[in-house]
Amino acid sequence: MNMFDLTGHVAVVTGGNGGLGLAFARGLVKSGADVAIWGRDQRKNSSAVEELAGLDGGAAQAFACDVADETQIAVALVSTLDRFGRVDSCFANAGVGGGCALPEMTAEAWDGVMDVNARGVALTYASISTHMIERGGGGKLIATSSDQSIMGVNRSSNYAASKAAVNGLTRGAAFELARHGITANALLMGYYETDMTAAADPRFADWMTKRIPVRRFGDHEGLEGIAVFFASPHSDYITGQCLPIDGGLCIS
Fold first, then answer.
1. What is the pLDDT of residue 193?
2. What is the pLDDT, as a whole number, of residue 1?
3. 87-96, 149-158, 230-239: which has the minimum mean pLDDT?
4. Phi, psi dihedral angles at 222 (to 5 degrees)
5. Active-site annotation holder among 159, 191, 192, 237
6. How many Å separate Cα 129 from the centre of its chain?
């Protein structure tokens, strides 16, 4: 018996065409789930679907979507339902960096990060949860947050604030949607190698490695199992939690 068989389960992964989101999608597909990737970059969307199609498991399809745009979210959901019929879990993973020092903050720098990282999650959840309630309730909402939401980091106040907003949204959603059988949790990610971290100063990676108690970056393969667990019935009694996935970084 496979305790984590997700055959028949349908998951949406925003920003699932690369980085952490693609790791989530791999795990879900390997466990039998069908996955709808919502992403802005059509080239990356196609590449991700091609990779996922080579795995032994569920189906995957990508839909163009900028989560900062309410209309695009609505269109992506309709397309997802036309293809897969339902949505059982949503990994609100799409995000941007662009952190800057507070004395250098501008309205553009603030809004650019908040629009995707915070508003994007809220609008995605609004659309997905409406569908879940209309089809009778039940479902999983999982947001990608960050250790920076609970830790101080230089030149990153807007990014940290956007992820702290995700944490608050998670707790509010968990309380509000519990009556509908919908859970909401956030994963506070530590240091993983992604396109976003690759663009950072290499000295930051060296400093971070020394600070992480387990002395290494996070591994993407480990995220596959985490995604499957939070999509599965085994996480049904976990809601409203903001869980660090960081090798102990937040306690160092």
1. 82
2. 56
3. 149-158
4. -65, -30
5. 159
6. 15
In the predicted structure, residue 161 carries a pLDDT above the cut 60: yes
Fold classification of 10-244 (topology level):
Rossmann fold (3.40.50)
- Hey, where are the domains in the chain? 10-244
Please report, in angstroms and rounded to a whole number, the separation of the first and last CA atoms in the chain. Answer: 39
β-pair type (139-146, 89-92) = parallel
Contact status, residue 49 vs residue 37, Cβ threshold 8 Å: yes
Map tokens 């969307």 to a residue.
45
Percent residues over pLDDT 90 in the chain: 85
- Mean pLDDT of all residues in 37-54: 98
Q: Alpha helices, DSSP H only, in the chain?
A: 19-30, 42-53, 70-84, 107-114, 120-134, 157-177, 195-198, 202-211, 220-231
Angstrom CA distances, 103 to 160, 165, 184, 204, stand at 15, 21, 34, 20
- H/E run at residue 37: strand 34-39
pTM above 0.85, yes or no: yes
Q: Supply the pLDDT for residue 149.
A: 96
159 part of the active site: yes
Sign of CA dihedral 185, 188, 193, 196: positive
Cα–Cα dist 118/128, whole Å: 16
Query: Average pLDDT of the chain?
Result: 95
